[in-house]
Write a structure and sequence with these properties.
This protein is mainly alpha-helical. It has a single domain (4-68), classed as 434 Repressor (Amino-terminal Domain) (Orthogonal Bundle). It is 60% helix and 0% strand. The protein has helices at 4-24, 29-36, 40-47, 55-65, 69-72. Helix 2 (29-36) crosses helix 3 (40-47) and helix 2 crosses helix 4. The longest helix has 21 residues, at 4-24. The protein starts with a helix and ends in a 14-residue tail after the last helix.
């Protein structure tokens, strides 16, 4: 089971990665949110690690970035998933 600290780390890392990819492609927040068909305040919360991301939202973000979802989640989370309690 995830500890709260690990959950927060996970959300923060995913949000940081999405923001990095978005800014690397020179998209503004509102423009990108519009292209991804999500609300800009929702994107902001995701990028700040304040919101869990749904798979459908990840798919929309991936499509707007023109990247496979694996490329978005290619992150060193600093969590040893092999030692998680079952």
């Amino acid at each position: 089971m995830f500890e709260k600290e690990e959950e927060n780390l996970f959300k923060n890392k995913v949000g940081e990665r999405i923001k990095q990819l978005r800014t690397d492609k020179k998209y503004g927040l509102r423009e990108f949110a519009r292209n991804a068909e999500i609300e800009h305040h929702q994107l902001l919360k995701i990028e700040k690690g304040e919101s869990d991301i749904r798979l459908l939202t990840l798919m929309k973000i991936s499509k707007a970035l023109k990247l496979h979802p694996n490329e978005i989640l290619d992150i060193d989370f600093g969590i040893d998933f092999s030692e998680m309690d079952q």
